[in-house]
Amino acid sequence: MSQDPVFVRQAFSSIAKRYVLTNHVLSMGVDILWRRKVANIVRDFGAQHILDLACGSGDLAAEIIKKMPHAEVVAADFCAPMLQQARNRGLPMLLVADGMKLPFAERAFDALTVGYGLRNMETWHGALSEMSRVLTDQGHLVILDFSIPEGWMKAPYRFYLHRILPTVGGWLTGNKQAYDYLSESIERFPSGEMMCDLMKENGFVEARCYPLWGGISSIYVGKKG
Known about the structure:
The chain has 225 residues and is α/β, with parallel strands linked by helices. The chain is 47% helix and 22% strand.
């Protein structure tokens, strides 16, 4: 499965200034707790050189820095207007970079995070392979992204995903098309064991899934072999 990088860059550029507010409204603020959980996981690894890829407005990178003030945290995104939002909040070590071709040497980082960004990359296989390349042996990858819940939550969640989310997101940002894309991309994105298998196919010997709120979002933790 591949995404159109030109469309994705244009979509995120158009909503950059309202992105954080819209996220908090659409998730009722729970996205803050999910990013905090990822930061706690990275802290427990004891990583010292961390890349937050597809950092967007810098929410996750800021949480990691708060938890690990002595670690080196590089935040990168291929959308310059989104990265400007991270710059406005005072985050250090920001870089415009494409996840499909990272400008880092092999084994440059001992942890890599990507929050709600892998889903938007041109190819998931290619992006995961590149993430593996820049991680040290035994380095960790932590992915936070939306997923589709199972059981009784699936139907109401899909109603929210395709009817409510694009309408509210479009109203807040002026770009409903970007949130129509968001809904569709969540449906296409592999979750649960499918994502774990994808990670194992691309350089990670261990991969585990931790569903959040019944599977509305999930955290995936992988270890490079």
